[in-house]
Amino acid sequence: MDQMLTDLDQAPRLQSGDVLLQIELDEPRDAVKAIARDQLRETPDVVGPAVQKLRRLLEMRFLRPCKFYPESAYKLIKSYYKFKLDHPSEYNGLVPSRQRNVFNQNVLNVLPRRDQHGRRVLILKLGKNWNHTTCSLDDVFKGCVLLLEAAILEPETQICGAVVILDMDGLSWAQMLQFRPAFAKKIVNWLESERPLRHQPNCPFMFDGVVFPMFTNHIKGQKFRSRVINIKSNGLLHQHISPNCLPSSYGGTLTIPIATGAQWLQLLLVCEREFNGT
Length: 278
Known about the structure:
Blueprint: E1 13-16, E2 19-22, H1 30-40, H2 44-63, H3 70-86, H4 88-91, H5 100-104, E3 108-110, E4 120-125, H6 137-152, H7 155-160, E5 162-167, H8 173-176, H9 181-193, E6 205-208, H10 212-216, H11 222-225, E7 228-230, H12 234-238, H13 261-270
Parallel strand pairs: 4-5, 5-6, 6-7
Antiparallel strand pairs: 1-2, 3-4
């Protein structure tokens, strides 16, 4: 029964009095196969490559975060796309070429070196680097989605995961007022259960700032709660991310130049086609 997740030797059927109810999982009749061929392009030379491409696009992306449990991967796929359907204003037409502003603001940075656990490190600078009058929190969210969608394509990120740092150094009162409970809830829901990135004990989301409680109040799972950390010093940060992977602004020793948001935008534009289904 390849069409179903339920482990059955034969198609489900139920005899109710004189009526036989069944889910028909047999091969289509020849006449129906002709319809599939003429109207759906269902021929061996089309089906084979299409199935293989779909597998490449979906299998590792969703199976690795679920440790190759197919039922869990199926659940993740459903929740992943349900979140997108529930937030059409954020996801409709979400491609790099339409989000130039947030990258040019340089509030999103990906460190050039993975951390000691092999994780990608994404930094959101929502304090003194952020001009909230020209770049909204929704813009920041969309930029994060694009960067993490790109990261999900990477085999090493599928295996090791990612860590997100929210740097709110210099956060002003006017900026703090931009953080509404509804936005915090959306971010937590997105991070907690709707993203095909591996959940692991040392895959934290690090907050630095007074809005920390607004986010943690919306966390449902204790496991994820343990991975959201309020970072108050570089010393505490170094307990989770090696200084070798961090720039001097975080007390690190990394000397490799950090690409700007605008530079990351240019890279994302090269593979814009990958985001057409985002």
